[in-house]
Design goal:
Blueprint (H helix, E strand, L loop, with lengths): L1 H21 L4 H11 L4 H25 L5 H21 L5 H21 L13 H6 L3 E5 L4 E5 L4 H18 L4 H11 L4 H25 L5 H22 L4 H25 L1
Antiparallel strand pairs: 1-2
């Protein structure tokens, strides 16, 4: 039992590290690792995954907020779409065939991976004219980029398309029971043209809010086992702390090169699941 606890702890450190670095929450690693590698019941693996998302967000949010990388106003604005989408997804669960959803969103992520690959050498977004709605909502921002040793000012664009993509991310989460961090980063990076670092930091902030809202449900169902969740939380917190410090010293181009293989992996996994259903 001790050895399994240590293995869970080590897996969680890695999950927290990747999750805080890319804004994905760590669940993408925790769930398959616990079920496939350690043979833990999927019910408890999903419960631990929820804990990992909250821990990742908690472990990285303070540092990102302190350095003003997280765009809190944009995050709270987009959280409206994500939450509404999650409720819609929960309502439609069982009505829509998940086979076609997996295939559709798998292909969408595959397209996004290609789009991100084309921008792999782009350190900062191109200059865009100020969006009137973004100015009205005060979504534009700036942060100090340690890797570039300069202040980066940016304008938020594509408000409607980004909001729509966040709604879809929520629907996916509600329908398929998967984390939507990867869609959040993709929406902010590809549609709203936020700097990659701002996208990952804001996604980390948002996924914690979403996960905290659903954690009570999983707890009441008995899906959160303290013997699994405790080492997951500790490991993820430590990994997130390390990932947060490293992210601030990496260039956005490096983050993209790390993010692209993850996008490809998730897209292929979703397509394969869709084909098998």
């Amino acid at each position: 039992m001790i050895s399994i606890t240590v293995e869970i702890l080590l897996i969680s450190v890695f999950a927290g590290f990747i999750g805080s670095l890319l804004g994905l929450g760590g669940g993408i690693i925790i769930t398959p690792a616990l079920t496939l590698y350690l043979g833990i019941d999927i019910k408890y693996a999903i419960g631990a995954s929820i804990v990992s998302v909250i821990a990742t967000s908690s472990g990285s949010a303070i540092a990102y907020l302190k350095d003003k990388i997280t765009n809190v106003r944009a995050g709270m604005f987009l959280e409206i779409a994500t939450t509404t989408g999650a409720l819609t997804g929960a309502f439609l669960a069982g009505v829509i065939s998940t086979k076609y959803l997996y295939l559709t969103f798998g292909l969408l992520l595959l397209y996004s991976a290609g789009n991100m690959f084309r921008k792999r050498n782009q350190e900062l977004p191109q200059e865009f004219p100020a969006n009137p709605l973004a100015e009205k909502l005060k979504l534009n921002g700036s942060y100090c980029d340690r890797a570039l040793a300069q202040q980066v000012d940016y304008h938020v664009t594509g408000i409607y398309s980004g909001f729509g993509m966040m709604y879809i991310a929520g629907v996916i989460s509600g329908l398929l029971g998967i984390g939507s961090g990867i869609f959040k980063v993709m929406a902010m990076d590809s549609f709203m043209k936020l700097p990659m670092k701002v996208s990952t930091a804001t996604s980390n902030f948002m996924i914690g809010v979403t996960a905290a809202a659903s954690a009570g449900i999983y707890l009441s169902r008995g899906s959160i086992d303290p013997k699994i969740a405790a080492p997951v939380a500790l490991g993820v917190l430590f990994g997130a702390a390390v990932g947060t410090k490293l992210m601030q010293r990496l260039k956005s181009t490096t983050l993209r090169l790390i993010f692209i293989p993850v996008l490809l992996y998730v897209s292929i996994e979703m397509i394969v699941k869709g084909v098998r259903l």
